[in-house]
Amino acid sequence: MGKTITLSEFIIKRQSEFANATGELSRLLNDIAVAAKVISRDVRRAGLIDNILGAQGSTNVQGEEQQKLDVIADEQFIKMLRNGGEVCGIASEENDDFVAFEDEVSRNGKYVVLFDPLDGSSNIDVNVSIGTIFSIFRRKSPVGSLVTIEDMLQKGTEQVVAGYVLYGSSTMLVYTTGNGVNGFTLDPSIGEFCLSHPDMKMPEKSRLYAMNEGNIAVCHPGIKAYAEYCQSFENDYGTPYSGRYIGSLVADFHRNLIKGGIYIYPVTTTSPKGKLRLLYECNPLALIAEQAGGLATDGKNRILDIQPTELHQRVGYFTGSKNQVEKVMELIREAEIKTV
Ligand code: AHM
Ligand code: MG
What we know:
By secondary structure, the protein is α+β, with helices and mostly antiparallel strands.
């Protein structure tokens, strides 16, 4: 077995990839890794200690019930980023508005971080994989001033780092700086993320598809056609695909990144804007998908090209292996031609 490369070592080695690197982004990534370790520890002990499982008794701005661990993870992330000094403000799924860090050091920070502290909340109490998703942008507003909404509403193509942490059978941190995708597994015995999945590539196609098929009756006819295609003997494999839906975006995405597959959460007639949020769920995973050779679209357009207009904007989402995303888009186009 080769030499163990810790995430901190890897970040330092790669620092030169950033133009005019001063180490700030490296420190920020390290802060995120520490927050991830703390959240991982809490997730691993859920069920053993009081006041960690179950509903918080509040709803977020999107009207969703918050779980205690959602709130704990959100506070942990904010605390780490506020104290780090590289970040001037954040936005998260759990906060109605973005948060500007007002102290002088933070006001001089060059970066904003958008994140979903704990995605897949409905899986927390049943011991199924959950994850953290994050996206880092360079601020648009002048250094020294208070962060603004324009700093938050940047296109996905402007991301300087995108990543996720999966609290699965092991804890993994996967990220990209736009130069490929690398995955690190937390070694609990030394408390370090270690490089375990260098230069990750998503297979171009597979026999796996992930969607909540309970919604099929309210889906676009092109998506119904894609589900039927996957289930038929007349597809490109000549045998039905396997349905794999965890209902935890990070876990479903991670499986597809390794084994190939498609994840679909479309707009429906009952949720015409979709469910997933563009800024802190779809964009970061879209950059990772593309960097690994996959695709991410809203069914018609590239996710990373969408100009956000709202912090908690929702979008239909199709991400995964290139051939599969192209196929469902083709069936959506065909269904629309038929209905004209
Ligand atoms: P959350 O941010 O409230 O956890 O919602 C996002 C989650 C995704 O992780 C998951 O893929 C999807 O919602 C599941 O939704 P559904 O239960 O409607 O299938
Ligand atoms: Mg979420």
